[in-house]
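Protocol step 4 of 5: obtain the predicted structure for the target chain.
Materials: sequence only (see below). No template structures provided, no constraints applied. The aim of this step is simply to have a reference model before the mutagenesis design in step 5. Sequence pasted as it appears in the construct record:
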Amino acid sequence: MAPTTRHKLNKVISGLEPGVPVTVRDLAESRISADLAGHYQQAGWLDRLGRGVYAKPGTALDLDASLVTLQQLILGLHVAGRSALERHGLQQYIAPSRPLTLLGSASARLPAWFTTHFPANYHQKRLFDELPDALLYVHPLGTSSRRPMVSDPERALLELLSDVGHRQPLQEARELLEGTYTFRVSVLQALLEHCTSVKTVRLCLSLGQELDLPWARDLDASRLPMGSRQRWVQRSPDGLLVLKP
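Step 4 output (structure tokens):
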């Protein structure tokens, strides 16, 4: 290997953070081509995680750094629903570890290099009327320099409620809502006004009123998309879910 190439390699490898995946785009910014990255991988100087993704050899992957890398690959990807609520410290009880809930704007599959290390479920969902690259109330969250995008608590709640009748038991959702006394009315109002799911809007209002939560009393229901004046009915594993207009 030429001295100049070896110097470039040493500089790149020393600059890689342990456990942080890098894409070929990241390497290109250091003038490392995809072909050269492949050569480094064959020589044992880089670990190839998957197509176009590498990491420093011999280090365990960091979850938040891996999520940030995924966000470069999947439009609108963010930590959502129950997983986002847990990141904000809202959980009813200590439960067995569950797969991460990830939502995004694009039809995609999580790469094996990620799911092998971090069990997760990804779904494409358009729950709100928003731009895919400017999601409402989704912000970086974390204490490290690598902070993945995470739903604010109010959005996470609606994402969780949208799954009731499918992947989310109703009783568990009701129990989680009991811890939402401090949720911001203005944020919930804005999100509900942009919500594309009548079921989610009605269920949020119904459970909020049933539990007599402060934000439920202050929401302006007249501005929310409630659908027709007919009842919304869905058969689910919990039984028949009936939501009044």
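Step 4 remarks: Residues 3-55 form one domain. The chain is about 40% helix and 15% strand.
Proceed to step 5.
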